[in-house]
């Protein structure tokens, strides 16, 4: 019988912990990075240039996002560059790139349809 009481107390503790977990807007903002997308070469210009992207998203995800936003075909390529100099690998996390190359609280990525730098 005491085991049943412990289970109900454990479930109440779990519910309390879930309710008290940080869900404030400031916590959500910290997990996102401001990414500024700039066109290069023959790439179409995006109407919205600044996006809040989860830190754990990968560079490849950003490339696919750009393709969908610009309504490019599956055969079209999108190349992403950091600091107009090198292309990070598609499996690199945005958070890692931001930590190394971000400035002024944002990460600037240049995109184009053909290889431009590096």
TrEMBL record:
GO molecular-function terms, A-Z: Atg8-family ligase activity
InterPro entries assigned: Atg12, Ubiquitin-like_domsf
Topological category with respect to the lipid bilayer: Peripheral membrane protein
Residue segments, region Disordered: 1-31
Source organism superkingdom: Eukaryota
A GO term from the CC aspect: Atg12-Atg5-Atg16 complex
Location(s) in or outside the cell: Cytoplasm; Endomembrane system
GO BP terms, alphabetized: autophagosome assembly; autophagosome maturation; autophagy of mitochondrion; glycophagy; piecemeal microautophagy of the nucleus
Keywords: Acetylation, Autophagy, Cytoplasm, Isopeptide bond, Membrane, Ubl conjugation pathway
Compositionally skewed regions (Basic and acidic residues) per UniProt: 1-20
PANTHER family: AUTOPHAGY PROTEIN 12, UBIQUITIN-LIKE PROTEIN ATG12
Subunit structure: Forms a conjugate with ATG5.
Function, in words: Ubiquitin-like protein involved in autophagic vesicle formation.
Protein family according to the UniProt entry: Belongs to the ATG12 family.
The protein, known as: Ubiquitin-like protein ATG12
Gene name of this polypeptide: LOC111120809
